[in-house]
Amino acid sequence: MVKITNNNKDWIGTSKFISSCNNRNKSVTENNDYYATEPKAVEILLENERFCKYVWEPAVGGGHIATVLESRGYNVKGSDIIDRGYKDTKIIDFLKINRENIEKDFSRDIITNPPYKYAKEFVEHALDISMDSTKIAMFLKLTFLEGKARKQLFEKHPPKKIYIFSSRVCCGKNGEFNPKNNAVAYAWFIWVKGFKGSPVIKWVN
After folding, report:
1. 140-144 long-range Cβ contacts below 8 angstroms, 24+ apart
2. Separation of CA 3 from chain center
3. Mean pLDDT of the chain
4. Beta bridge mates, 171
5. How far, CA to CA in Å, does 192 sit from each of 49, 161, 185?
6. CA atoms within 13 A on the CB side of 141
7. What is the three-class DSSP state of 172?
8. Which residue has the higher pLDDT, 92 or 177?
9. pLDDT value at position 116?
10. Cβ pair 36, 171 in contact under 8 A
11. I need a surface site. Which of 5, 70, 118, 133 has the fewest CB within 10 A?
12. pLDDT in tens, 43-73
């Protein structure tokens, strides 16, 4: 496991440490709410989308998305509320970070598989803290399309593209993959900050 030796400072080296011990995430442990992304899902994303060289993975977990990105030449910054073993994980709460906490170096595209119960909040926050034209890719359940609250999100911030997996991919609970656990349909939702229009839907895999 990667050891964080500077736990009194945030990821930009200031004393404004963002605690992972708050009411929202006290229940998040190594054995709860951690579903790793199947690497082939990332490969398929990269076959269809190009991103800037610098990528932020704010729910990096064990690095299942980040490792694929790095193998394709991307410069990846990984953060999470818990260190699950990805190298140099920055311990921060993505939903608490703001523009003032982000170095210029963190003006980068965002690719992640957010905790599903906070998926809407992750999307909204990513858009809020990003500069115009930043590309944001979220690996989400296809049912994310449902719901009145998310309808309002889509009306205000329509995704530019949605890649639906025609064959099921799976997520690994606690980082362990079981090919039989493929009952859930997933898609990549792509936002570009400032985009207005109707999304393009494409079936992949």
Report:
1. 140/113, 140/114, 140/116, 140/186, 140/187, 140/188, 140/189, 141/116, 141/184, 141/185, 141/186, 141/187, 142/185, 142/186, 142/187, 143/185, 144/119, 144/120, 144/187, 144/189
2. 22
3. 82
4. 37
5. 12, 9, 23
6. 15
7. strand
8. 92
9. 85
10. yes
11. 5
12. 999 999 999 999 999 999 999 999 999 999 9
Domains of the chain by range and CATH?
35-204 (3.40.50.150)
pLDDT at 95 over 50: yes
Name which residue leads in pLDDT, 176 or 135.
135
> Tokens standing for 200?
């393009």
pLDDT at 12 over 50: no
Amino acid at 69: L
Token representation of residue 170: 């799976």
Token digits of residue 144: 């994310």
